[in-house]
Design brief:
The protein is α+β, with helices and mostly antiparallel strands. It has one domain: Ribosomal Protein S5, domain 2, CATH 3.30.230. It is about 35% helix and about 20% strand. It is built from four helices and five strands; from the N terminus they run E-E-E-E-H-H-E-H-H. Strands 1-2-5-3-4 form a five-stranded mixed β-sheet. A hairpin with a 2-residue loop joins strand 3 and strand 4. Helix 2 runs parallel beside helix 3 and helix 3 runs antiparallel to helix 4. The longest helix has 19 residues. The protein is elongated, with a radius of gyration of 18 Å.
């Protein structure tokens, strides 16, 4: 089996995922999954597409992550893994991934700060006198 690559994005995070047949090792920026994401919740988020399609332990995943925070990176990695699995065998896995929402890119981004205001929409306190 050749290496399958896919891209996942979330907020400012970008994940480049490379999926190959193997023993189920997940390596992110040269570090294992439990070292890169110490939180079990984020590890669960990353493994969701593998769990839903019953592919845990079948493929080695190497990922390059940059930008954003740890939550955005975990969700970008989830999207990248889901897209790679879909490329692997679309008719078998696409429906399960789609019903769980793993193939949908969450496009929400932070709104920019506007001039003359303390934030994107917040205004300074009004003073009548």
């Amino acid at each position: 089996m050749e290496v399958i690559n896919a891209l996942g994005r979330r907020k400012a995070a970008v994940a480049r995922v490379y999926l190959a047949a193997g023993t189920g090792a997940i390596t992110i920026n040269g570090r294992p999954l439990d070292k890169y994401f110490p939180s079990e919740l984020l590890q669960y988020v990353v493994k969701q597409p593998l769990t839903v399609t019953d592919n845990e332990g079948k493929y080695d995943i190497k990922a390059n992550l940059n930008g954003g925070g740890i939550k955005g990176q975990a969700e970008a990695l989830r999207l990248g893994i889901a897209r790679a699995i879909c490329k692997l065998d679309a008719e078998a896995f696409r429906q399960a991934l789609k019903t769980n929402g793993f193939l949908t890119r969450d496009q929400r981004e932070v709104e920019r700060k506007k001039p003359g205001r303390p934030g994107a929409r917040k205004r300074f306190q009004f003073s009548k006198r």
